């Protein structure tokens, strides 16, 4: 009997030691998990800061480069070129200044399309970065609360936090895979631009044909009676186009060529507008 009692006592003490060791291991695992969360938070924080810095740097570089090209090509000063690039990329389209050179207009179409798309991408990236920082800060705070509860209530809190956090971590690891399917953005962008330009070319052809049909029905003006409808920098020697016909009320009209029709349809589709009396 004494031998059995001794064996039972030794077994109980062994079980208590085993439980204490297990509890200490659980507590150690909880502390290690919190350290990993803190390290991951600092890593995500640094990564998101770099992402924000790169995104904003590329944006301002693109803005300054476009403004410089517009200024050099149109004879504007640097501030005016930056102003026009900003108005274009923000789709405000005041129209107080517009490019007149044909190749600058073509450049402006691609510059506007890429710039407007990048503004949307930049805003999305900034929101994602800020959201990641907020989520990482929340996870770190919850980990600290969990550790504090472990010190009060023992090792159950750590075990519970590790078991509940693993499905969340698995979900976070699975979520990016859904958004990575298909072609990358740098391969999709040329397809989008090409499709956009082709659609606008169709509308431009219709616009130009209707313009030709309408002007043909009006009273044509002989060359000696044609007058300037749009001037470059208010200089009569650099007239952009002349009126070729008038209606019954004497209002001037002209045929809109295909290249200019593309300019108008693209600018309209991108909601820039450039509504200005200089373009009338």
Helix-strand blueprint:
Blueprint: H1 2-74, H2 78-89, H3 102-153, H4 156-179, H5 185-216, E1 219-220, E2 228-232, E3 235-242, E4 245-246, E5 252-253, H6 258-269
Helix pairs in contact: 1-2, 1-3, 1-4, 3-4, 3-6, 5-6
Give a structural overview.
This protein is mainly α. It contains 6 helices and 5 strands, in the order αααααβββββα. The strands form 2 sheets. A 3-stranded antiparallel β-sheet has the order 1-4-5, with no helix packed on it. Strands 2-3 form a two-stranded antiparallel ribbon. β2 (228-232) and β3 form a beta hairpin. α1 (2-74) packs parallel to α4. The longest helix has 73 residues, at 2-74. It is rod-shaped and about 125 Å long. Mean pLDDT is 74; it is low at 155-164 and 175-180.
Question: How can the largest sheet be summarized?
Answer: 3 strands, antiparallel
Which descriptor suits the 3D outline? rod-shaped
Give the terminus-to-terminus CA distance: 113 Å
Look at the helices and sheets and give the structural class. mainly alpha
Note the total helix count.
6
How confident is the prediction overall: mean pLDDT? Answer: 74
Spell the H/E element sequence: HHHHHEEEEEH
Helix content: over 70%
Number of strands: 5
Strand order of the largest sheet: 1-4-5
What is Rg?
34 Å
Strand content: 5-15%
């Amino acid at each position: 009997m004494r031998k059995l009692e001794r064996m039972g006592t030794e077994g109980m003490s062994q079980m208590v030691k085993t439980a204490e060791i297990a509890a200490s291991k659980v507590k150690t695992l909880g502390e290690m998990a919190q350290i990993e969360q803190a390290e991951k938070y600092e890593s995500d924080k640094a990564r998101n800061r770099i992402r924000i810095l790169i995104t904003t740097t590329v944006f301002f570089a693109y803005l300054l480069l476009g403004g410089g090209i517009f200024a050099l090509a149109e004879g504007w000063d640097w501030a005016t070129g930056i102003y026009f690039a900003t108005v274009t990329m923000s789709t405000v389209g005041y129209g107080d200044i517009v490019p007149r050179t044909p190749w600058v207009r073509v450049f402006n179409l691609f510059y506007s399309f890429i710039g407007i798309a990048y503004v949307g991408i930049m805003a999305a990236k900034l929101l994602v970065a800020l959201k990641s920082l907020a989520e990482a800060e929340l996870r770190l705070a919850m980990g600290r609360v969990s550790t504090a509860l472990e010190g009060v209530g023992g090792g159950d809190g750590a075990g519970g936090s590790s078991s509940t956090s693993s499905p969340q971590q698995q979900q976070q690891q699975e979520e990016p895979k859904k958004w990575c399917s298909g072609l990358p953005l740098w391969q999709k962008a040329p397809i989008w631009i090409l499709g956009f330009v082709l659609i606008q070319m169709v509308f431009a052809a219709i616009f130009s044909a209707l313009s030709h049909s309408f002007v043909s029905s009006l009273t044509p003006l002989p060359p000696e009676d044609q007058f300037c409808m749009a001037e470059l920098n208010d200089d009569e020697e650099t007239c952009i186009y002349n009126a070729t016909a008038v209606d019954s009320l004497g209002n001037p009209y002209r045929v809109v060529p295909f290249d200019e029709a593309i300019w108008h349809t693209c600018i309209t589709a991108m909601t820039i507008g450039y509504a200005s009396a200089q373009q009338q």
